[in-house]
Amino acid sequence: MLEFRNVSKRFETPGGQEVSVLQDVSFTVEDDEFCVVVGPSGCGKSTLLNLALGLVPISGGEILHGGKKIEGIVSSDVGYITQDANLLPWSTVLENIMTPLEIRGIPKSERRTTAKEWAESVGLGKFLDFYPGQLSGGMQKRCSIARTMAYDPAMIYMDEPFGPLDAITRTILQETLLGLWQTRRKTILFITHDLVEAIALGDTVVVINGQPGGVRARIPITLPRPREIRHLAASTDFVELHTKIWSYLEPGVDNNLGELV
Amino acid sequence: MSTRTQVRSAAVALDGEIVAPKTVSKSSRDRKWRLKVSIGQVVAILLMLGVWQAISGNVIPDYLISSPTGVASDTINLIQTKTMWNDILTTTQELVLGYAIGVVFGILVGVLMGSLKYVSSVFEPIIAGINGIPKIALAPLFLLWFGLGIWSKVAQASMIVFFVMYYNVYMGMLGISPMLVKLFQVMGAKRGYVARKVVLPSLSIPIFAGLKACVPFAMIGVIVGEFIAADKGIGYFVLQATQQFDSAGLFSGIIIMVAMVLIGMGIVTFCQNRVLAWQRLGHGK
What we know:
- The complex is a heterodimer of chains A (about 260) and B (about 280).
- Chain A has helices at about 45-50, 95-105, 110-120, 135-150, 165-185, 195-200, 230, 235-260; strands spanning about 1-10, 20-30, 35-40, 60-65, 70, 80, 155-160, 185-190, 205-210, 215-220.
- Chain A has about 260 residues and is an alpha/beta fold.
- Chain A is built from 8 helices and 10 strands.
- Chain B is globular.
- Chain B contains 13 helices and no strands.
- The interface of A and B includes residues 74, 76 and 138 of A.
């Protein structure tokens, strides 16, 4: 279980001014829940994830991971999937997937077998000896998902993982992710600015908005599982949820536009 | 070359599918072009040698510029003498030691400066200041400190090599992706593991750039040292030849130096091709 309690974060600009990014954020991610945090760009949602991983220091409030307060970088039983695949360019697909297993001191033969299985389950079975530079963006992303799933962390943090991909690849990968999650339940905290993605994937959607960002709504997604993402947009339930969540997002979006002009 | 082209086209694959490598009709055009370039190069070199041979003794006296045939026969004679091999051996020793010491310290200091912000803030301007010294001006000092033997030359060479290597590695350190490092920390990697698996490979390109650039620089250091004061080595031999108006000997010495530098570069390139194989197969993000 992951608990955010009155979390706030302030940054100091190079000019010495304090900017408040997050204010009084409180919500809970239950075990095995797929929780999606959605918000416009600049609302501090990625910062929230960095706080939860202990990558940046918190300014106020606390975050509890399995009941324990987070201090310093969280590295036990968590996975982190970033916007860029962040693979080692000098290692092959198989070696990349084996890396976290090696860190955990798992014997070499076992590492190999596990990594191969995961590569196959994300559709990279034929590309074991390819270097990341030889793969498309979507395949790199598959590799980074396999790398994270391979060491079986209880909790996975995903920071706009499908953001840079084209629409078709994104949908396919979302389905892959859901398929994996359905067979191996994990707690997932998924950050995105894509409403459709949020509804398609999540059990719960947490809407963050404003500057500083705060939780505007926590909406359970009641759509039945397994979901077929490519046909989801046609269902009336989906449209309803979409309209509802959008209403919480609108004010902030207008603000952002105002700033741009 | 043709395998590389194949790999590239396989790389432009759709998600989840391999695009079959294109059968390349380009390679025969490539080969023709390269042949043309090679012919041009040979002709250009022959032309230059021809001009040199023609003006030698006619326009410019032989003792000033010798001639290609003179240099060729002199070089062949020289490399059959024992003294020349002693000179080559001495210079090689100085070159290898100076290069190695400069490289090792350059990498160490570069990594240190790149990983400790306080240290780099303090020392960056100081190192830049020391680098401002024309290193050759230190040759008399090294002679004073390390004597007439090989060590004054080793010091001179390593001094030059150090700075080139240091700047390459330091800049390389600044280029390491902080995101990749964080990701590894979240995966549970300890400092040593990150250093081995992320930092060191990230530095491989700047390190090899430095290793290549430093071979001729090390040679400059060694030869300058031998010019100042020595009783053996190729630099010493060239200086002697010059003082005796033996321009053929001088050119032969230079040819031997160039050969040594090229062999050194060849060794570095050989290692680079093995270590950086991943790099030739396309870049990661």
